[in-house]
Design brief:
Layout: H1 7-33, E1 44-48, E2 52-58, E3 67-72, E4 75-82, E5 99-106, E6 117-121, E7 124-130, E8 139-141, E9 144-146
Parallel strand pairs: 6-9
Antiparallel strand pairs: 1-2, 2-7, 3-4, 3-8, 4-5, 6-7
Length: 147
């Protein structure tokens, strides 16, 4: 019986982790391709602190009931809808977007999906993703708190 060193298991674990990251990236690209070219994409900022990754989406004028946020593996998917506002007058200029909004984001690093929280304040959806020591990949819908 050969002596087991554990090295091969460690290399396999690293390979599996890389394959998982490639699959997650391909999944995000598939999500982006599933939506039309003319669909709106809200502006987004993402930054990292020592303990968390924070993502902020600009969603001014949205009703909270029309915003959905979910995790699919390491991808965060934001879907929102703003209906066309009926108006008695005749438009001279139209710059504000309406209709379906979609944004799929690959979240870098190791985060704890069970600890993700979101808040919507003054037209900005802020998603806080706490970091963890290991990579976990469940699918979860995220509750948005109203202030």
């Amino acid at each position: 019986m050969p002596k087991y060193t554990g090295r091969k298991l460690f290399q396999q674990e690293i390979l599996n982790r890389h394959v998982g990251e490639i699959r997650n990236l391909l999944h995000v690209l598939e999500l982006r391709d599933a939506f039309d070219e003319d669909e709106n994409r809200p502006k987004m900022d993402m930054y990292e602190t020592g303990q968390e990754i924070v993502i902020e989406f600009d969603l001014p004028g949205f009703a909270l009931n029309d915003v959905k946020l979910k995790m699919c593996g390491m991808s965060m998917v934001l879907e929102a809808y703003r209906p066309w506002e009926q108006n008695d007058g005749k438009f001279i200029c139209v710059e504000r977007s309406h209709g379906r909004f979609h944004h799929a984001v690959l979240i870098p690093g190791n985060i704890d999906p069970c600890g993700i929280r979101a808040e919507y304040r003054l037209g900005v959806l802020r998603v806080i993703c706490p970091k963890s020591g290991e990579r976990l990949v469940p699918i979860k819908e995220i509750q948005i708190d109203r202030d």
